[in-house]
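User:
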Amino acid sequence: MARRPRTGNRPDGGHLRTALDLAAAGVPVLPLSRGKRPFGNCPACAKGDCGDRPHMKAAGPCRCPRPCHGWAAATIDPAVLTSPAWAPAWQQAAAVAYHPGGAGLTVVDLDNTDAVTWARSTLPTTRTVPTTRGEHWIYRGAMQSANAVRLDVDIKSLMSYARWLGPGTGTMTDLPGVVRALAAMKPSTARPARPVVTVSALAGGGECRHRVPAYLDRGIAMAEQRITEAPEAVHATVYRTFLAVLSAHGRCGCLTDAHIARLFTAAQAKGESPRHCTDAWANARTRLGL
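Assistant: Predicted structure:
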């Protein structure tokens, strides 16, 4: 955060002014409706690759002219913030949110006094911001966001947003390894994917063409390249690529753990979390009836 904005959320309807101050400081912002929710998807792209549904999260800044995609709608462009398309949202806004990861920050969201007590005895000190029930601890550095890393503790950074509650107090410090470790140790609640496809061979019998190593390896290499070269909409690209691989190779028993690990590695190198990879793989299998 380059400098502290001059204002916090104001009850006089000054949320846009707060947003502009934050944007000038290099912090991507967006308006929140009541209930701390982003404004709903616009009709033009509600069903597109950048939709704000769990299985279609945007992988980068939203290019729609309206604030409709949660964290991905956050921007530092004052021309966007003050555009007529955004005016209704600011007129109805109940708060301002920001994208911590887009500002190179990580917020440890402590939801009550017990969580705050734990943080004070466990985490390095940094800038803190009081919330309704607890505190936000803000560190310099971005990481993958994760919910419920322990009781009443969430991590908000990449692909997430946090409510702006003022600049806080204290000196911001670098993101410590102990916070990164919290996300790494968090057990996934996603439905486990079955990595080896064991569906019967092609109808009518005969040798499966996919068992020719060169054919399968070329298909996996092309899939890796497609994911790696995706300029945007990475989450949707990963899902579509998984779907294509399973369409071609999923019914012959050819895919192994090593092949699937290559695809997951390529996706995670583009910023996808292990959970997103697992969910995308499971959704592709379900779509194909595997």
